[in-house]
Amino acid sequence: MSPQNTGRSSLFGALFVPALILGVLIILAILVISFRGGDDRAASGGDNKARTLSADTMSAFDNEYDAIGESVGSPDAPVTIREFADYQCPACGAFAPTAQRIRDELVESGQARFVFFDFPLPMHAHAQEAAVAARCAARQDKFWSYHDRLFETQRDWSQRDDPTSMFLDMAVESGVNAQRLEACMTQGGPDDVIARNQDAGKAISLRATPTVIVGDQMFSGVVGYDKIRQVVEQQANASD
């Protein structure tokens, strides 16, 4: 091989390896961005178009799933509103005031019943522990006050490396016995029912948190109060 060809070969080799490494890094970056984008959609919700659930699915809610959720309102209410949520999910935190308004107005007036289901996502480090804390508060008949406080302080505790002390402080603020709450959380008593909540979500092909189900109409992601009230009225009229 001539000295000229040898020089070209060396130059090609010197340029090829860095170019190959750069190409691999670019591909990996695209894959990571795509993966994270998918996770963000799962957490924040995307498609807000309602999907009608089958009669078999609604029967499963009535006869099985609702018993493992936390409910408020009369079982005889004409419409049931159900929410699957993750306490660390920002979109769920954004929906929380709407959920509270539903309970204050539609549930209190007897127009609807409301059932909350846990669906902690693995991408949120403290979501499972928050769900356990809320279920432990439920054992002291303080679920809703504790549940609301978790969403109100979401930004603070979600940034902690270990939010346990905040969860115990919330117990005092919510009228919950902190020692009993801590013992319940340590024992992991609610883990089983939370897992069953997640199984229910998977059974309906849940694609986002929050997922809100009004009667047999399922919305993925944040949905406004006026839309929910409209669907409640439609469902109630349809059942007359």
Supply the number of helical segments. Answer: 10
Oligomer: single chain
Biggest sheet, spatial arrangement of strands: 1-6-5-3-4-2
List the secondary-structure elements in sequence, H or E: HEHEEHEHHHHHHEEH
Q: What is the terminal-to-terminal distance?
A: 92 Å
Describe this structure in words.
The chain has 240 residues and is α+β, with helices and mostly antiparallel strands. The chain contains 10 helices and 6 strands. The chain has helices at residues 3-44, 55-63, 90-107, 127-138, 143-152, 154-157, 164-173, 178-187, 191-203, 225-239, and strands spanning 51-52, 70-72, 79-85, 112-118, 211-214, 217-220. The protein has a 6-stranded mixed beta sheet, sandwiched between helices. α4 runs antiparallel to α5 (143-152).
List its salient traits.
240 residues; alpha+beta; single chain; six-stranded mixed β-sheet; disordered N terminus; 10 helices; 60% helix
In short:
By secondary structure, this protein is an alpha+beta fold. Helix content is 60%, strand content 11%. A 6-stranded mixed beta sheet has the order 1-6-5-3-4-2, sandwiched between helices.
Task: Present the secondary structure layout.
Blueprint: H1 3-44, E1 51-52, H2 55-63, E2 70-72, E3 79-85, H3 90-107, E4 112-118, H4 127-138, H5 143-152, H6 154-157, H7 164-173, H8 178-187, H9 191-203, E5 211-214, E6 217-220, H10 225-239
Parallel strand pairs: 3-4
Antiparallel strand pairs: 1-6, 2-4, 3-5, 5-6
Helix pairs in contact: 4-5, 4-8, 7-8
